[in-house]
Design a protein that fits this description.
Largest sheet: 9 strands, mixed
Radius of gyration: 28 Å
Shape: globular
Number of strands: 26
Oligomer: single chain
Strand content: 5-15%
Distance between the termini: 66 Å
CATH class of the largest domain: Alpha Beta
Structural class: alpha/beta
Length: about 725
């Protein structure tokens, strides 16, 4: 239906009925990962399939989002009221409710290539239907699964009297999938392209903006303008902050940054803002904690600790809300331009964003434009603001109001007149961030909606093939332009474990259970190795578990690997930086032992020696022998007293009481998992006879202020005990 107006609907049920009538009884539905799913339409299709066994529905997607739920009674009492408040008005995915209750019908399949970390552990149907794909291959793999329906949530906007749709939060796969399927449709295959409008979705620009005829069916009624899924921010812990601060020292001024969602990404953003806005404190922290003493070489060689003069730009599969914080705090301020000669001159420092006579002369000298300007040259100069608005070009003459100037700038008088009458002030059409998709808290969506059009155009939403790789002159940008844009690229990702040989574990367990998915991690690691001055930075928390179950995430080996050892680069834990690129196996082991928790260093060193991978005479340097959590807390204490490193530097959806309760219940859960400690805790809780007045607001929040049953009374005592242990009463 290309070049025709789409059919408009106000009822998802009618649209679903027509889609089934069009494509047939087997529907293979491709929907965006995370936020961009048109939930009402998906639910309508799913209900039809549940009620009609002759239909068969396969959904190909990633990150089917769910409201948070607690596992224990106490967690449910804390989280359910929070979810009711934060997700009020959000339309749940009905297939996810049935998945959790083991009630999926036999004529339905869910095939995902990425999920929330740990969400499907032990869920057999999800484990069996997982598709392992690089993010850049997802569109191809969805196509090869036989997709015949594409459905997407969009926003709409009137621009110059014409209606446009924006794929907003999720153009990243749709942009590549739709053209491939249009070709199949033109060859006679029955395919449907469905958009559902939701005006709560920010209207984003770049490649995300399309004409309505990009789709065959458009569902548009205010009834479906429902609340967007919100991803609440998690607190930033001491290990998070330490990892983020180390990473912040590896970001090059004038370079490029890719980061992901979560507390580690937030910690990195905080570190970058601290480096820019509180530079003296930032440097003092690096010095006082010994970070510079131990890792000065790699910090000075790869990154830096000074404020950002040129700033950085973003090229990221996921636009996280931290990027907006970086824009507001003058960290992300390096604009890139869709022009090879212009970008090359900017990178070399031969021009700046200020338009000057020297800029025009430089462009002529570099043959970016002809000395005798053509119409194409004139349009180029006008597009990027080098020529001001209001000029016209015709038959080799520039018309400037009443004046006409010959476009042959080889004539000095013509050049002088152009310089005095035609130049603009600053370059236009620059982009601060290229992104593929976004997801975040409600405050993030609100901020995007309230941005001016000019501010939102600083964020260019595009294909995952554009941001996640440089190879291939795809419909977006050439390889050469991408290399110029992504100078000094720093691609920062998180993982679960790192082996002593440099392999990275991010998506699965040894027994084959999928934790999340590969996503774009491999893409960015490979891209970091392909670009001439880029680095891959893998963030790994050094420890997991609590008490006796605590273990090192730096391990000798592991039965599953996401990033192979030959693609090793930089690894960061809360204890430091390991630069592994080009190192021998023994050097890699030494570097990783230096950033391992000291309780596990000797055991790992012994394993390496027994395997013949390190000299039996080697001993770990004393300056790397104090890697303990208590030392990190000690390092943070003085700076926290001065107001630095708060748990939620960028805000939170939790109330003050919920934050206190969340911390207390987390501590209680950890303690209750320990044998004798558990018994001691239970004993102390049982002895509580009088409930302190200061505990009553917290008990009211959990509906335990008037416990009826013996179980509720015990839970109330446990809560009081947990609050007392953490000093909240």
């Amino acid at each position: 239906m290309e070049n025709n107006m789409p059919v408009y609907y106000q009822d998802v049920e009618k649209c679903a009925e027509d889609v089934i009538e069009n494509v047939g009884k087997k529907i293979v539905l491709g929907i965006p990962l995370a936020l961009g799913k048109p939930n009402q339409f998906v639910n309508a299709l799913y209900r039809r399939v549940k009620s009609d066994p002759t239909l068969h529905l396969i959904i190909c997607t990633a990150l089917s989002l769910e409201r948070p739920k607690g596992s224990s009674d106490l967690e449910k009492r804390l989280l359910e009221p929070f979810a009711d408040r934060v997700f009020d008005g959000y339309m749940d995915l009905e297939y996810m409710k049935d998945l959790r209750q083991n009630k999926l019908p036999p004529n339905f399949e869910l095939r995902e290539f990425y999920s929330k970390a740990g969400a499907y552990l032990g869920v057999d149907v999800a484990q069996q239907n997982y598709i392992s794909s690089n993010y850049t291959h997802a569109w191809r793999d969805i196509r090869d699964n036989g997709v015949n329906v594409i459905a997407q949530m969009v926003s709409k906007k009137e621009i110059d009297g014409r209606t446009y749709l924006s794929m907003s939060c999720n153009p990243e796969i749709t942009l590549d999938l739709v053209p491939a399927l249009r070709e199949q449709q033109n060859n006679g295959q029955k395919i449907a392209f469905v958009a559902m409008v939701n005006q709560n979705l920010p209207f984003m620009y770049g490649d995300a903006m399309v004409k309505p005829d990009y789709f065959d069916q458009v569902i548009d009624t205010p009834e479906y303008y429902t609340r967007l899924f919100s991803a609440p921010k998690m607190s930033i812990t001491t290990p998070d902050y330490m990892i983020g601060l180390y990473a912040s020292s590896l970001i090059k001024d004038g370079g490029t940054l890719q980061i992901g969602i979560g507390s580690l990404g937030d910690a990195l953003c905080y570190g970058l803002i601290m480096r820019e806005k509180e530079n003296a404190v930032y440097k003092r922290f690096l010095s006082d904690t010994g970070m510079m003493d131990r890792f000065r070489d790699v910090i000075e060689r790869v990154g830096g600790t000074e404020p950002f003069q040129r700033g950085i730009t973003g090229s990221t599969e996921m636009l996280v809300d931290g990027y907006l914080q970086l824009i507001k705090n003058d960290v992300v301020k390096r604009r890139t331009y869709e022009s090879i000669p212009l970008q090359r001159l900017l990178n070399k420092g031969q021009i700046t964003e200020d338009v000057t006579p020297a800029m025009l002369e430089c462009l002529i000298e570099e043959k970016a434009v002809n000395v005798n300007l053509t119409k194409e040259d004139f349009d180029f100069l006008t597009r990027f603001g080098i020529f001001r608005e209001g000029l016209a070009y015709e038959d080799g003459v520039i018309h400037c109001g009443e004046n006409s100037i010959p476009a042959d700038l080889g004539v000095a008088s013509n050049l002088d007149r152009v310089i005095s009458s035609c130049l603009g002030e600053r370059l236009k059409k620059g982009v601060l961030i290229y992104g593929g998709f976004f997801l975040g808290p409600e405050s993030f969506y609100k901020e995007l909606r309230e941005m001016s059009e000019e501010e939102r155009k600083n964020i260019f939403m595009t294909s995952v093939l554009n941001v996640n790789q440089i190879y291939g002159n795809n419909p977006y940008f050439s390889e050469q332009l991408k290399v110029l844009h992504r100078r000094h690229g720093r691609f920062v990702n998180a993982c679960l474990k790192v082996t002593l040989s440099g392999g990275v574990v991010s998506d699965g367990l040894e027994n084959g259970q999928v934790v999340s998915g590969v996503g774009g991690q491999y893409n960015f690691v490979a891209q970091a190795h392909a670009l001439p001055d880029a680095r891959s930075i893998i963030m790994c928390k050094g420890l997991r578990g609590t008490g006796k179950a605590q273990a090192s995430n730096i391990v000798f080996n592991y039965g599953h690997i996401t990033i192979p050892r030959h693609l090793r680069d930089i690894v960061i834990t809360e204890y430091g930086i390991a630069d592994l690129r080009g190192k021998t196996d023994q050097e890699i082991i030494i570097s990783l032992l230096n950033i391992t928790d000291s309780r596990f260093q000797d055991g790992l060193l012994k394993q390496a020696m027994e395997a013949g991978k390190i000299s039996r005479e080697y001993t770990i340097d004393d300056k790397f022998r104090n890697n303990y959590p208590e030392k990190l807390e000690e390092n943070m204490a003085m700076f926290r007293k001065a107001g630095f490193f708060p748990p939620f530097p960028f805000g939170t959806d939790f109330t003050d009481d919920e934050l206190v309760l969340g911390k207390a219940l987390k501590g209680l859960k950890a303690q209750m998992s320990e044998g004798m400690i558990r018994m001691a805790g239970l004993g102390k809780a049982i002895t509580i006879r009088q409930i302190p007045a200061s505990a009553k607001p917290y008990l009211e929040r959990l509906k335990l202020d008037d416990p009826k049953s013996a179980k509720e009374k015990m839970m109330a005592r446990l809560v009081v005990y947990a609050l007392s242990v953490q000093g909240s009463l």
